[in-house]
Amino acid sequence: MRARAGHTALALIGTLAACGPVPVEQAEVTCLRDAELAVRPQTNVAVGIGTGSSGTRGFGSVSVDLSGDYLMGRDPSQVYDRCVQRRSGQPPRRPLTQQPGWTG
Fold it and tell me: Where is this region: Disordered (predicted)?
């Protein structure tokens, strides 16, 4: 029984370690999407036609990513800064407006 409890504790520690800080560079890339969603919702529409044993059929899908930051009217730069700090434990190396790919 004791050995099993020890293995469970080690597994829990390993899981928590995986949730630890990420490199600031990785956090900046990940958090860029959060900042973009604070500016506007992102929508995706897919339409297609396929054939199969039952004949030709049309299909489609629509998805909308809507963030609470957008609904609350939060400043994308602040959303970005907080996200990078939370994920990496460090402030961003450059402000949001200087990040490659930022279209604001």
Answer: 81-104
Q: What pTM did the predictor assign? A: 0.67
Other CB atoms within 10 A of residue 83 CB: 22
Alpha carbons 93 and 104: distance in angstroms, whole number: 18
User: Cβ atoms within 10 A of the Cβ of 69, count?
Assistant: 20
Q: For 21-40, what is the mean pLDDT?
A: 95
Of 27, 12, 14, 18, give the one whose Cα is nearest residue 89.
27
Contact 36, 55 (CB under 8 A): no
- CA pair distance 84, 16, nearest whole angstrom: 19
pLDDT confidence of residue 28: 96
SS (H, E, C) the chain: CHHHHHHHHHHHHHHHHHCCCCCHHHHHHHHHHHHHHHHCCEEEEEEEEEEECCEEEEEEEEEEECCHHHHHCCCHHHHHHHHHHHHHCCCCCCCHHHCCCCCC
